[in-house]
Design a protein that fits this description.
Length: 404
């Protein structure tokens, strides 16, 4: 008789954004004329930049012609894309990453979720609290955690590293030594960044304990300050202890096109075994490559025109973030993030719980945000707004909140 992977049964309730969608749906059916401003889900709204659209058109035409048609993409991605990434994202920042260490994929979510497969099931993971839920949930599914403790809102056998306003939302080294350390900076949901010295500290920590850092840099393009590293490989020794995930989603509006990549350095080992061949084996066995058309679009992100156009788009989101941060402060809220990230993290009003504040904003101002507690127990009492909406939406949202 077939039986299920019981680890899946450890996952509590429904996915955060499904719960939000259900609540919003209930509200709109009761108030069909409500003008709702959505600042919840971290999805982009700007259309794909013209230089990228042009590359897509050209690649589509190539697919319709005998002499330029492409079938399966190479397992690890097309050389044209891997070399331009190695040059522009790494060499230009002084990082020595070879194109062969770059694995093209359909986005950072799948890579962040799948990477745990190449590690032993007994490895202990450490995550920030609050955290992007994929890191924990994918390890739960794999059986690398204990049961969910309802009263604490945590899984057993996971090291949660509190990220609080006291530590600037940057974790301290945990007492118990983890095998795998998930770090994400600029951070979702707090919008915090880790400065170069602090990240170097984590690299040194990982190297001295034989841990591997799984570094999610999906929001790298939003970094505005000089002393914030864009890649973990800007730190000395990181190639010996870190894997890095990148995404085209927030950088260039590819949430619907799907493209990302993961860097696994050739010298990186865990317990004396190299990780590059394992990830290459996994990629080759379970993944058949991002579409040629989309990889050509990815290449166009690095062209002169492409770069300038995506910079303008990011500037629009960053200006929204500035408007939201300033406006929320004027409205009397304690606000974090929004400078090097598209996320604004704030304390709720009058010590409301995150979900109470969600209901309050929805009912009183028709604004949808994300309850901080959905990202882990450390997020309780906080709320996340995104800057991915329109300029008018951001301004109107602030006006409404100021009037509450
Ligand atoms: C921290 C973080 N990593 C990864 C992703 C997923 O990126 P992608 O669209 O490339 O799968 C997201 C998306 O919201 C994210 O917030």
């Amino acid at each position: 008789m077939a039986s299920v992977n019981r680890n899946y049964l450890k996952l509590p309730g429904s996915y955060l954004f499904s719960t939000i969608a259900r609540k919003v749906e209930a509200y709109t059916s009761a108030h069909p004329d409500a003008d709702i401003i959505r600042m919840g889900i971290g999805d982009v709204t700007q259309p794909i930049a013209p230089a990228i659209i042009q590359a897509l058109h050209e690649a589509v035409d190539e697919m319709g012609s005998d002499d330029s048609f492409r079938g399966y993409a190479p397992d690890l991605g097309y050389e044209f894309l891997r070399s331009i990434i190695a040059e522009k994202d790494y060499k230009d920042r002084g990082c020595d990453i070879d194109p062969s260490e770059i694995f093209i994929s359909d986005g950072a979510k799948s890579d962040c979720g799948n990477i745990q497969e190449i590690f032993d099931v007994n490895n202990k993971i450490a995550v920030c609290d609050p955290v992007y839920p994929v890191y924990v949930d994918s390890n739960v599914m794999a059986g690398r955690t204990g049961e969910y403790d309802e009263s604490l809102g945590c899984f057993r056998d996971v090291i949660y590293m509190p990220c609080t306003r006291e530590n600037g939302f940057v974790p301290l080294f945990p007492k118990e030594i983890p095998d795998l350390i998930y770090l994400c900076f600029p951070n979702n949901p707090t919008g915090a960044v880790m400065k170069k010295d602090a990240l170097q500290g984590w690299v040194d920590y990982a190297r001295s304990h034989g841990s591997v850092i799984l570094y999610d840099a999906a929001y790298e393009a939003f970094i505005a300050e000089d002393d914030v590293p864009h890649s973990i490989y800007e730190c000395t020794g990181a190639k010996e202890c870190a894997i890095e995930f990148r995404s085209f989603s927030k950088t260039a509006g590819f949430t619907g096109l799907r493209l990302g990549f993961t860097v696994v350095p050739k010298e990186l080992e865990a317990g004396g075994e190299k990780l590059w061949p394992l990830w290459a084996r996994r990629h080759g066995t379970k993944y058949n490559g991002a579409p040629y058309i989309v990889q050509r679009a990815g290449e166009a992100v690095y062209s002169e025109k492409g770069r300038s156009q995506i910079r303008q788009q990011i500037a629009i989101y960053k200006e929204n973030a500035r408007i939201i941060v300033e406006g929320m402060k004027e409205a009397g809220y304690e606000v974090f993030g929004g400078v090097n990230a598209p996320y604004i993290w704030m304390k709720t009003k009058d010590n409301m719980t995150s979900w109470e504040f969600f209901d309050y904003l929805l009912n009183e101002a028709q604004i949808v945000g994300t309850p901080g507690s959905g990202f882990g127990p450390g997020g309780e009492g906080y709320f996340r707004l995104t800057a991915f909406g329109s300029r008018m939406g951001s301004i109107r949202a602030i006006d409404r909140i100021k009037k509450l």
